[in-house]
Amino acid sequence: MPNQNDNQHDNNAENQKLTWYEKFSHPLEYRGLRFTIYTTIAILIGGLVEIPPFFLQGNVQKIASVKPYSALELAGRDVYQSEGCFYCHTQMIRPFKWETDRWDINREYGAEPYSKAGEYVYDHPFLWGSKRTGPDLSHEASLQPSAAWHKAHLINPREMVPTSIMPAYPWLFEKPIKADEVVARMNALKTIGVPYSDDELKNAPAEVEGKTQGDALVAYLLKLGRDTKGK
Ligand code: HEC
């Protein structure tokens, strides 16, 4: 029986064109160790070129209107993370017409209403998500600006959207916020460059005083897209 490769070459004119390449590739592919070493060197060179720009601050164009999260919003961001909202929701509008049309229905975010790197400078970690079981939330502040709507929706999504499959989170509006945890989080963020002032740190416990985790989550949702709206 003829070798399968030969057979393919005979039958496929397209493959014929690549036979010259096999003179280089076959000797490499048949020497596993040498091939591994060469590929490792190639990847290391690629890494040397690609990794440093990752740390260059100048690569991210700052947006002056984007401000750090307040103490209450930050507490809400923690709830968003611990409840895994990002498993069903993204926070990134890609530069495609069908996305920008959908998430900036009223053209409130300028001529290029997709998400920019500068919008995420205070996000540690990013909560971009990758699955849209629910809608993207990047512009939630303008798509649904009512805190009362968000509260009712989180307590029972079916009440606001009868066909909704989103889980209900009623208990969040009974759980208090731990002020010392929020202050610790703000201090940690400050050490990695989020510009919280001493006043903001001092006032944080008063800001979350008497508020529930649900209130914080609503505050967080109303921060999404607020800073870049109309800019
Ligand atoms: C199982 C998937 C799922 C999870 C988990 C989930 N959602 Fe949803 N979410 C949805 C779906 C589906 C919708 C669309 C129907 C609706 O509005 O209820 C939605 C809608 C929303 C909306 C309304 C968006 C709009 O503009 O209409 C908000 C706000 C929201 N979710 C926030 C959250 C938050 C906050 C959490 C975490 C506490 C969360 N979701 C968890 C699936 C999910």
Architecture overview:
By secondary structure, the protein is mainly α. It folds into two domains: 4-55, no CATH class; 71-221, Cytochrome c-like domain (Cytochrome Bc1 Complex, Chain D, domain 2), CATH 1.10.760. Helix content is 50%, strand content 0%. Helix 5 (71-82) packs across helix 12 (213-221). The longest helix has 23 residues, at 32-54. The chain is elongated. The model has no long low-confidence stretch (mean pLDDT 91). The site of heme C has 24 residues, from helix 7 and helix 12.
| Helix-strand sequence | HHHHHHHHHHHH
Topology-level CATH name of the largest domain: Cytochrome Bc1 Complex, Chain D, domain 2
Question: What is the arithmetic mean of pLDDT?
Answer: 91
Ligands (ions, cofactors included):
heme C
If classified by CATH, what would the architecture of the largest domain be? Orthogonal Bundle
CATH H level, superfamily name of the largest domain: Cytochrome c-like domain
Explain briefly what this protein structure is.
The chain has helices spanning 4-11, 13-16, 19-29, 32-54, 71-82, 97-103, 140-143, 147-155, 157-160, 179-191, 198-208, 213-221. The chain has 231 residues and is an all-alpha fold.
Keywords:
mainly alpha, elongated, 231 residues, single chain, 12 helices, binds heme C, 2 domains, Cytochrome Bc1 Complex, Chain D, domain 2
Reconstruct the topology from this structure:
Blueprint: H1 4-11, H2 13-16, H3 19-29, H4 32-54, H5 71-82, H6 97-103, H7 140-143, H8 147-155, H9 157-160, H10 179-191, H11 198-208, H12 213-221
This protein binds heme C (HEC).
